[in-house]
Amino acid sequence: MISTEQLDAVFTEHYPSLVRLAARFSRDGAGDIVHQAFINARNMLGNLRDDENLPGWLSQQVRWTALSWLRAQRRLRGRTEQLQEEVPAHARQASTLDQVHAEDLRRRIMAKVPPIYREALDFLLQGFEYREIAELVGIPIGTVMSRLARGREAARKAVLS
Fold first, then answer.
1. Lowest-confidence range among 113-122, 127-136, 143-152?
2. Residue 131 has what pLDDT?
3. CA separation for the pair 26, 41 (Å, rounded)
4. DSSP letters of 149-161?
5. Which of 41, 79, 115, 143 has the highest CB neighbour number within 10 Å of its CB?
6. Distance CA 119, CA 35 (A)
7. Is 1.10.10.10 the CATH classification of the domain at 94-161?
8. Where in the chain is the domain with CATH 1.10.1740.10?
9. What is the pLDDT of residues 26-59, one digit of tens each?
C-alpha cells in the first residue's frame, strides 16, 4: 500500500503539471481543483494498488474533480440567473460594501462550525448535490445528510450567539 508520505512527494513533484491539467478545464479555479483533487486522493488512498501509476492516478483525480467543479459552477450560474430574474432590478443593485459585509459574516459564522460539518456545508454552498458531496468526501450519503443537519444547527447557534 502506498503511504501518505509517498503521495505527498509525488504530488509535490507533479504539482505544476496537475495545475496545467486543471487549467484546461478552468483557468480561474485550477488551484482549487488541484487542492480538492489532492484531498480526494488522500481520502481514497486505500483504493490504490501499489502497482498503479501514481502520477497518472493523480491526474485522473484532477480530471474527475474538474468535471465535478464545472458541473457545480454550471448549476450555480443557472441558479444565480434564475434568482436574478425573480428579483426586481432596484433590489439587485446591492452595494459592494454590503456584499463584502455579507461574505465576512458568512466566514465568521462558518469559522464557528466544526470542520467536519463545515466541509459538507462548503460543498453545499458551492452548489454540489448531496450525492456529489458524498462522492467527493468519500462517505455515505446518509453521513452527508447528518453532517449538513449538524452543520446547519451549529451555524444557527453561531448566528444567535
1. 127-136
2. 86
3. 20
4. HHHHHHHHHHHH-
5. 41
6. 14
7. yes
8. 1-92
9. 777 888 899 998 888 888 877 777 656 788 888 8
CA distances from 148 to 44, 46, 118, 143 (A): 22, 26, 8, 8
Domain(s) labelled CATH 1.10.10.10 in the chain stretch across 94-161
Could you say which DSSP state residue 2 is in?
A: -
Is the Cβ–Cβ distance between 143 and 134 less than 8 Å? yes
Q: What is the pLDDT of residue 140?
A: 92
Q: What is the pLDDT of residue 106?
A: 80
Residue 146 · residue 133 · CB < 8 Å? no
Residue type, 147: R
**Is the Cβ–Cβ distance between 103 and 39 less than 8 Å?**
no
135 is written with which cell numbers?
462522492
Place of cell 501514481: 54
**Domain at 1-92, CATH from 3.50.50.60, 1.10.1740.10, 3.30.565.10, 3.20.20.70:** 1.10.1740.10
